[in-house]
Amino acid sequence: MRYHILPLLAASLFSVSAHAGFVEGLAAYNRNDYASALNEWKPLADQGDARAQYYLGWMYDMGEGVRQDAAEAVQWYRKAADQGYALAQINLGNAYTTGQGVAPNHKLAVYWYRKASDQGYTSAPVNLGVRFDNGEGGSQENEANLPVYRNVVTRDYTNVQFTLANLLYNNGMGVPQDFDQAQQWYRKAADQGHPLAQINLGNMYINGQGVPRDYKLALHWYTQAADQGNAYAQNNVGNIYRKGLGVKQDYAQALYWYRKAAEQGDAGAQTNLGLMYHNGEGVRQDYTEALGWYRRAADQGDSGAQYHLGLMYSNGEGVAQDYAQAAQWFRRAAEQGHALAQHNLGNMYLAGQGVQQDYAAAMRWHRKAGYQGDAYVQNSLGNLLFASGQGAAQDYPEAAEWYRKAAEQGYAAAQNNLGTMYKAGLGVTRDFTQAAQWYRQAADQGDVNAQYNLAQLYAAGMGVRQDFSQAAHWYRKAADQGHSMAQYQLGLMFARGQAVASSGH
């Protein structure tokens, strides 16, 4: 939404005659006598009075006493901005941001916002201007006897700092992305209480963008905005307490903040509140309560809530099991790009649950899910392509590629599967060294199958130097998790005297 800044500065910086003409124009403007205001300000503007130029820009911008003309407004704003008039610089920046009266140009928007912000525009000059206008300043200011402005914007100029930070934070906005500069401008606005700047500064601490990752500082800034009643911030505070990020996990606090946001209608918080009732986190498990919150969020189009409604209908949790309803909710979420909903909808097409069995549709939805980048989904897609008779033609090369996408994200099951593809030479060139490397990555994460497979490579000396100690080490890791073949192989090694103490891996 576009915003404008109305001037709030004393007129004492200009000559007496210019001051008089400006004040007369201002008095006329405040009476809604735009024609008289225009007659007073136009000659001053032509003579280079920045205040008058700015007000002419404002009148053309608003269509007050003249035909509304955004391009003409920009011309007058520019004249005043070139003289260093900060309020004109702000509105000129707005024009370049929104493309009203001028071609959008975020580089120029940043340029003009910086010009204004570098003049120290905070709440202080605004409040000073208000005091001038109400005759509450010093004796010199009282002599000016400026009338009270009509429709004065009394908020501070933190919106400029916030907008400038947004342009620097978001990639592809016409200026180089600069997290360091963005966090500095967010901080300026956040320090003055701007809730959206506080939220975005919290986001930067969560993600470690422009600042070191620091969950406690993220919580600090989210709480600042949450205490102002911002529902998005309240949901974020709930997330931190629910996940225990930088603080002790506290479901009671999470519930408190989720509920505050949910009762304001925040769909994300409604979904999160539903999840806590669904899973019994900090409350007695209550499917009816979960359904209620999911429905409120789903009706607002929240894809996460729609997905969870699909799960509840699919599993018969709190409702009669209804695959048709499940498929409908999964579809709503899937069409919004929810990867797990796409994956589940694909499974329903595979099984013919709630929809007519359709292998082509199943693979279409599974591939959509895979391209979303979810490692679990990518590994599952690899499994479908690896096995025959599950609705997809067996395709080892494509299966290997999906395993690789998931494996490179650190997904242990996919790393084990990719190791097996290299060991067997399925869809890739056979390479025992590569197999061992992928098995080890998964084994180090505790994947029992990878531990068993890595032990086999050490026992046979395939892709690694033969090492019975290492083989026994990994067989034991898998055996301790209940892997029956690992237990058997470890028993054989003891019988053969090969299960010597391991020195580690």
Largest sheet: none
Please state the overall shape, judged from the principal axes of the Cα atoms. elongated
> What percentage of the residues does DSSP assign to strands (E)?
under 5%
Low-confidence stretches: 1-19, 122-156
Can you put this structure into words, describing what you see?
By secondary structure, the protein is mainly alpha-helical. The protein is 67% helix and 0% strand. The protein has helices at residues 16-30, 34-46, 50-62, 70-82, 86-98, 106-117, 123-133, 139-144, 158-169, 179-191, 195-207, 215-226, 231-243, 251-262, 267-279, 287-298, 303-315, 323-334, 339-351, 359-371, 375-386, 396-407, 412-424, 432-444, 448-460, 468-480, 484-496. Helix 1 (16-30) packs antiparallel against helix 2 and helix 3 (50-62) runs antiparallel to helix 4. The longest helix has 15 residues, at 16-30. It starts with 15 loop residues before the first helix and ends in a 9-residue tail after the last helix. Residues 1-19 and 122-156 have low confidence and may be disordered.
Which features would summarize this protein structure in a list?
505 residues; mainly alpha; 27 helices; disordered N terminus
Any chance you could write out the topology, listing elements then pairs?
Layout: H1 16-30, H2 34-46, H3 50-62, H4 70-82, H5 86-98, H6 106-117, H7 123-133, H8 139-144, H9 158-169, H10 179-191, H11 195-207, H12 215-226, H13 231-243, H14 251-262, H15 267-279, H16 287-298, H17 303-315, H18 323-334, H19 339-351, H20 359-371, H21 375-386, H22 396-407, H23 412-424, H24 432-444, H25 448-460, H26 468-480, H27 484-496
Helix pairs in contact: 1-2, 2-3, 3-4, 4-5, 5-6, 6-9, 9-10, 10-11, 11-12, 12-13, 13-14, 14-15, 15-16, 16-17, 17-18, 18-19, 19-20, 20-21, 21-22, 22-23, 23-24, 24-25, 25-26, 26-27
